[in-house]
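A quick aside before the break. I want you to see a complete sequence-to-structure record at least once, exactly as it would be stored in a machine-readable document. Don't worry about memorizing anything.
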Amino acid sequence: MKRFSCSLSFFVVTTVLLLAAHKSWLLLFWMAAVLHELGHLLALYLLGGRVNRFCFRLSGGELQYDGKHLSYGREILLALAGPGINLLCAWLCGWLALFGHRELLYQFSGCHLVLAFFFFFSALPLDGGRVLQNLLELRYPMDGELLALRVSLCLGAVLALIGLAILLQGGNPTLFSAGGVILLRSLGKKPLHLPKKLLK
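That is the input. The structure line, written in tokens, reads:
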């Protein structure tokens, strides 16, 4: 059983908003996160996958599905569907802002763009990391997951170190938090179903 979860990005975005004191944006980000997960859900149905569980909480959404019969190409399309919906909604909100309610629509468009940016990041368990994993598994069937995990660990470490340097200079802790969460999630065996040889 595989899963998509937006809890990581939602955590990072919430941190950004709380630090920036734009708490009124939280509802807009939550709505953007819901649309993101619905994008994955719609793509899964269109690609012939089977939903095992779909839920959405204040901490983020999660879609569990049976994707054994999905090809690598379909898995990549499924991973891109969520950020794709966010980009489409960002464009639509920007276009609708030309006709009124500019401030609200521009804010909602910004929420979608931030979510899409984080989800496109090539680190597991984000959507960009899933795309990378499927591309690597297509080229290296036995070691693709392990290689994707190593890339995720490296990217998480780099983000955490850069974020720590920024934090020590009195800057925003968001980048440090994002890198740390990516590292913790990458090291967690349950959500990623890591191969045992990684632990040796």
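Two observations worth writing down. Residues 78 and 192 are 17 Å apart (CA to CA). The chain has eight helices and three strands. We'll return to this after the break.
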